[in-house]
Amino acid sequence: MNKLHPSASGASASTARTVAEKLVEMRAPGSFAAKPPRLVSLDAYRGFIMIMLAASGFGIARLAQLPETAPVWKEVDYAAWQELAFHFGHPPWRSRFGTMGVSFWDLIQPAFMFMVGVALPYSYARRVKLGHSKWRIYLHAAWRAMVLVLMGVFLQSLSTRTTNWSFVNVLSQIGLGYIFLYPLINRRPAAQLAVLALILVGYWGYFASYRPPQDYDYAAVGATPETVFEGRFSPWSKNANAGHRFDVWLLNLFPQPQGKFDFNRGGYVTLNFIPSIGTMLLGLMAGQWLRRDGSAWRKLGVLVIAGAVCMGLAIAADLYVCPIVKRIWTPSWVLFSGAYVLWMLAGFYFLFDVLPLRYLAFPLTIVGMNSIAMYLMGQMMRPWTVRQIHTHFAGLLEEMAGKPVFADDWLGRVLDPTSAFIVFWLIALWMYVNRFFVRV
């Protein structure tokens, strides 16, 4: 029997020991006195969201789009997948259904932005501990904001022949708001709440002040009857609002791939970053609260109650102030989505920081600690990775299954993004073990 080369055996053993040590550290953080325990729930939460993005929702929405006559529906329940698919797509316009109903996919971006806020007090404290001056910290924040904006533009340009100067990608939105969020770190909660109220009321007033003309051609800007409001909510109609008007001015200052910017097909607007600061600010306040000394149960309770307060205000706002619309990040959406992302953080905090289950967070944590890398892999490498999987493994797996499972009208729409994600997760594991973290 052939033996492993000593160096290969040593490398494998070293990797295994490193992974084991990480698991032990997560299970008993006090055993590594030199390193204060991380907020495992934040890494797990971030990892969960990045997994959803990198796996493109595991192809659930695309599978549900197959016609009812497709062969796959002989094996799986068509009706059940249609119901599940609702949560892996964005509704056409309104984001609240029933009393508190919402599409899970609508909550992905708010969760992403909320976590940026939660992480800020921790990263700021780390830089202060390293002896960085306030000016150095703020200049780094400005640099990070600029890089995030440009990364978003780059991702928006992947399928265009020239630079697509659009700023609605989540990275650009975070970057545009980040520089305004940073000065609010460690401010008194009353001051932060006052800023939040100012953002929401001011942004509401900006939209409410605009009314589309009586003869406005909604069809020409991609609006349909279900995306157009009448009466007092008309300022929040698709591509017939103050944010759209601003983009027609702003984006045409830049060279556009299509020659001229007329409207965004999804109705998204650049100015979404302003109310998004409110979403990140909710995260900032949550992060500051979790960093405080005190009972973990009390911290958990405050997160739950804060979410309930946001939900109550959101429902009232949706009835009387402005509709809950994720695509234009209405002030009511800030509160509505804020309730859910607070409750999600509370759930992760309960599982991984209150209960002794942090070792179970390991598969999520290794993604959460390299969230930018995972997001970029999902955005840029998925098509190429799927092709390699088809080339080298699809035939073998289909022969083992006895069915053409990778066919587009079978399970290919789920297996393609899922198998690509497995590759990305293994890369993230390698990066984690070798302590290689992508930071901006």
Number of discrete domains: 1
Biggest sheet details: none
Strand content: under 5%
Number of E-type strands: 0
- What is the H/E order? HHHHHHHHHHHHHHHH
Secondary structure category: mainly alpha
Show unreliable segments.
1-36
Q: What is the CA-CA span between the terminal residues?
A: 48 Å
Radius of gyration: 23 Å
Helix content: 55-70%
Number of helices: 16
Mean pLDDT: 89
Q: Which shape, going by the Cα principal axes?
A: globular
Secondary structure layout:
Layout: H1 6-27, H2 40-54, H3 60-64, H4 78-85, H5 108-129, H6 134-156, H7 170-181, H8 189-208, H9 242-250, H10 273-291, H11 296-320, H12 331-354, H13 362-368, H14 371-380, H15 382-401, H16 412-433
Q: How would you describe this structure to a colleague?
A:
The chain is an all-alpha fold and 440 residues long. It has one domain (40-433). It is built from 16 helices and no strands. The chain has helices at 6-27, 40-54, 60-64, 78-85, 108-129, 134-156, 170-181, 189-208, 242-250, 273-291, 296-320, 331-354, 362-368, 371-380, 382-401, 412-433. The chain is globular. It starts with 5 loop residues before the first helix and ends in a 7-residue tail after the last helix. Mean pLDDT is 89; it is low at 1-36.
Describe the structure using short key phrases:
0% strand; mainly alpha; 440 residues; 16 helices
